[in-house]
Amino acid sequence: MIYAQIKNNKVQNTIVLEDASLESTFAQGFDVLVRIDNLTPQPGIGWSYDGMNFSAPLESSPSTQQLAEQAVTNDMNFGQSLITQFAATNNLNGISTSGKTLAVLSYTSNLSECLYTGSLQAALSIMEGMLADNSAAKTACAPYITNDIINSYIAQIQSYLSQS
Q1: Among 60, 87, 123, 158, which residue's CB has the most CB atoms within a 10 Å radius?
Q2: How far apart are CA 45 and CA 83, in angstroms?
Q3: Where would I find the H helices in 49-63?
Q4: 1-59 confidence digits (pLDDT tens)
């Protein structure tokens, strides 16, 4: 038999008793012990009890703060996945043995920070500037940073943002 232990009109716990003679023992410390295995739907922890009927708890919607935090977390995860993708691709293409790792790290430091923190609009702005850049610093990063590569990351970010 399944019972709800109720205090202050709320189900605090549910228990299984094989022996009904133990009801008084398991009712101690609670306002009432109510058998629930014969109810459909079966009440659970958090349900309300008015002395006759059980009510399921109301489902709460996430707060504005929780929604904002989840959106930022999603953006950060996406940005970090781009960083991982970029690093893995460059490792496969031999950046470690080319002597260009520090040049690429230096050139992309602001971009990496934006991606790491999920600041995707700022990352797009930096990449737009990279596309127009003809400096020696950018040239020193080839073939690991090219306009084709930058455009591919811009497209990924724009696609992600259009879906969020």
Answers
A1: 123
A2: 44
A3: none
A4: 999 999 999 999 999 999 989 999 999 999 999 999 999 999 999 999 999 999 999 88
